[in-house]
Design brief:
The chain has 383 residues and is an alpha/beta fold. Helix content is 52%, strand content 11%. The longest helix is centred in the middle third of the chain and has 22 residues.
Length: 383
């Protein structure tokens, strides 16, 4: 895509990337390029890229297939799990349909049991995450899981992964992460250059663009264009600056961002799997490649890790760098680890930073939009 377009058209192109990507994966299959489907930022994409595969993000952020999923899964289960399973079961997600292998991970009990059922209709490889990230045994487990994934991919696609290929994939993913982080750090500008909806469109949409080199160029050009227009005076009016933390947000969960921005605030940053949590840390390109991958991915501050000091550290860093006036913790219904951890996040935000905190529990439906608007409006008014 040419970057001579006006910014709104560029943002819309990223918003449309998921739909356009359906055609791309069909072309990739016709070229016999392997596709690896994934749901989680813990999955080390570098291994799949080194195997000559393309990594696709699978559909999991809509309530479209939840009714079908609930024929097999409990109703009181996280909507992300039900959506993931429903899209796979119904073949309504082209990314899932065309994937040669799905790589899952044990980030929660519901997910790991769901993958057992998913394996009945799609090849699934499940990575076993440690419960901790701070001891040698946990590091050894995760390093061995990365090697086990490599063995699975080599067997699945009949290609030996060389150290040269792996280092090249690490370098490419680092460039992609740097381009993404340079873009979303535009949220640090005060007053803002972009709305939170615009930032989310790009960061979420980027996961459905499969030509990494083209994506890197596109993101760098977009970032430069936004900065240039900002320096020329194009900026948003000052409002309370909100940092979002918690569960992955995208697709249907975008309603939370809209509620914030339609009620007097700006979302300036995302400390979650959609945003900084996945991209803030790079893979060390020196030394042992598997040690470097282990260090990078175990540094992800997910609530499934205990104690989760990584999340608190990144949250503090972002509150300061993004000059946040308040933090909103988005928790998907029945996501027990994030729900339980919300007390620690509330204490940290209020005691360490002395700014307002609010937790919002939601799902993928639109039934709570009125309540969302009421609560968010009251939260922003008190700033």
């Amino acid at each position: 895509m040419s970057l001579i377009n006006e910014l709104p058209a560029i943002f819309d192109s990223f918003s449309d990337a998921r739909r356009q990507g359906f055609l791309t994966v069909l072309e990739l299959k016709e070229q016999n390029i392997p596709l690896v489907g994934t749901y989680c930022t813990f999955m080390p994409q570098e291994i799949a890229l080194a195997a000559g595969a393309v990594v696709v993000s699978l559909c999991s952020t809509s309530d479209e297939t939840i009714e079908e999923a609930e024929k097999d899964l409990p109703r009181n289960l996280c909507p992300l799990i039900k959506s993931s399973y429903g899209f796979g079961k119904t073949d309504k997600c082209p990314y899932f349909y065309f994937s040669d292998l799905v790589v899952g991970e044990t980030t929660c009990d519901g997910k790991k049991k769901m993958y057992e059922y998913m394996a009945e209709f799609k090849p699934v490889h499940v990575m076993q995450l440690p419960n901790s990230a701070s001891d040698d045994a946990s590091r050894a487990l995760w390093r061995s899981e990365i090697l086990r994934l490599q063995t699975t991919l080599e067997q699945q696609f009949g290609r030996k992964i060389s150290e040269h290929d792996l280092r090249a994939a690490i370098a490419l993913k680092n460039q992609e992460r740097e381009a993404l982080s340079s873009f979303y750090r535009l949220g640090q500008l005060n007053p803002p250059a972009l709305s939170g909806v615009e930032i989310l469109k790009v960061v979420y949409g980027a996961t459905f663009k499969f030509d990494k080199n083209a994506l890197i160029d596109e993101l760098n050009a977009l970032t430069a264009k936004v900065r240039q227009e900002y320096e020329q005076g194009k900026r948003l009016e000052p409002r309370p600056r909100i940092l979002i933390t918690g569960c992955p947000i995208g697709g249907a969960a975008e309603k939370v961002v809209r509620a914030i921005e339609e009620n007097g605030g700006w979302v300036v940053g995302y400390e979650n799997c959609t945003g900084a949590k996945a991209t803030e840390m790079q893979v060390n390109e020196e030394g042992d490649v598997y040690d470097a991958l282990t260090d990078k991915y175990l540094a992800i501050g997910c609530s499934c890790i205990s104690p989760n000091t990584q999340r608190l550290n990144l949250l503090s860093q972002m509150i300061d760098e993004y000059q946040a006036d308040g933090v909103i913790d988005v928790i998907l219904q029945a996501c027990h680890t994030y729900a339980v951890e919300s007390l620690a996040i509330k204490r940290h935000v209020r005691q360490q930073h002395d700014i307002p905190y609010m937790a919002i529990e939601t799902d993928y439906s639109n039934s709570d939009i009125g309540q969302l608007n009421t609560r968010v409006s009251a939260f922003i008014e008190m700033m």
